[in-house]
Amino acid sequence: MSAFQINLNPLKEPLGFIKILEWFASIFTFATCGGFKGKTEILVSCPSKGVVNKTITAAFGYPFRLNQASFHSHSSGNVCNVTWENYVLIGDYSSSAQFYVTFAVFVFLYCMAALVLYVGYTSLYRESRKLPMINVNDMAP
């Protein structure tokens, strides 16, 4: 078994370059989904005369438990004599979002381990018959 030696040549080959792209994609995947925050707004027009239209907002974010996101008014709790905190969005998408982020974290860890194997243990990787690899030098005419 050979020792750890840094060799950046595998990163120039498609095998290593694609792992770098996968690594970056996994970072952006769990960062954008895990840190997502959004809101939905409704403009409420009251039927009584002389009452100004009001906007109510429901804010939500990761893990997308929309059934816990209630509406709030910017000015007061009541808009058109209705307490909007009693109304929530529909849906609980937390299991899908958490699976997505968890899978992205596992892909990130896999890519890190593969890059360490490609960059640090290139000679061991090329000599091993148990790990699949195509040697570009053997394919030359």
From TrEMBL:
Subcellular location: Membrane
Top-level taxon of origin: Eukaryota
InterPro entries recorded: Marvel, Synaptophysin/porin
One Pfam family named in its UniProt record: MARVEL
UniProt keyword NAD, yes or no: no
Residue ranges occupied by any MARVEL domain in the UniProt entry: 10-141
Membrane association type: Multi-pass membrane protein
UniProt KW keywords: Glycoprotein, Membrane, Transmembrane, Transmembrane helix
Record has Transmembrane as a keyword: yes
TM region(s), chain numbering: 99-121
Family note: Belongs to the synaptophysin/synaptobrevin family.
The protein's name: Synaptophysin-like protein 1 isoform X2
Record organism: Microtus ochrogaster
Gene name of this polypeptide: Sypl1
